[in-house]
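Ticket #4471: structure output looks truncated?

Reporter: J.K.
Steps to reproduce: submitted the chain below (133 residues) through the standard prediction queue, then opened the result file.
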Amino acid sequence: MILVAGLGCRRGCSVEELHALLRETLAEARVEEGALTALASSDAKALEAGLRSLAQRLKLPLELLPAQRLAPYESRLSVVSERVRQASGSAGVAEAAALALVEDLAERPARLLLPKRRSANATCALAWAPVTE
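Returned output as attached by the reporter:
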């Protein structure tokens, strides 16, 4: 299984807050942290130290996707946000980034395992696809 956590955050969000939200999201989905394949976000978040620190802490790749890669997933988002669109160029970051990266890695349709969850300054969603042998 390919499992990706999509993450969005406000400027300056701490690695501690991001990691706590990720742990809560994984627990709700009943998935171990070690099952994650990668983390994904918008390239608008490229300067966010918290995201980069989380990827280093978990020893996972962090893929930062451009808005044009996230845009096709708008119809699959649980919430479309004009505020997020203005900030990142995409109507949603966490869900769209997770879905897009899973589909890139699996070369097949992805599904949300868990839609976007929130903390005070971050969002997290889980997407997955099976791996074929």
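Triage note (M.O.): checked the attachment and the full token line is present. The beta strands are 2-9, 38-42, 62-65, 111-118, 122-129.
Status: closed, working as intended.
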